[in-house]
Amino acid sequence: MELNGQYRIPAARERVFTALCDPAVLQRCIPVLEEMDRLSPTEYTARVRATVGPLNARFAGNVRVAPEDAPRFYILYAEGKGGLAGAVKGEARITLEEVDGHTDLSFTLAAALGGAVGRLAVKLVKAKADRVIDGFFERFTAEVLNG
């Protein structure tokens, strides 16, 4: 499954990047995130709960940030297991460009889904992912502006 998108965040790139690396900010902004802990400057553990169609699942896993050219470009690797629900493995390439005091964020996400979640119709999973991503950026933009 592949997703991509672009969002404009009315804040400086450094501020956006710092907020994107803060587990407390992410926990407040990602609708399905139950828990996130920083293990190192580039590694995290996370637990998410998501309902996709008839499937209600909890996934636990690891997230790693590879700061290729931080804060302008980085890669996010994630891997999680959800018992009978299956497994998820993904890679997101994120670019942050500062333009007139705003940050234009673009991303490309490639994810492999296994088990029950992988058997659900891709359109159903993509629709849920799009709603989660849109909800995240709505909350994240408010967080960056008010934080």
From TrEMBL:
Question: Which CDD domains does the UniProt record give?
Answer: CoxG
Q: Which domain of life is it from?
A: Bacteria
Q: What InterPro entries does the record tag this protein with?
A: CO_DH_gsu, START-like_dom_sf
Q: Which Pfam families match?
A: COXG
Q: What is this protein called?
A: Carbon monoxide dehydrogenase
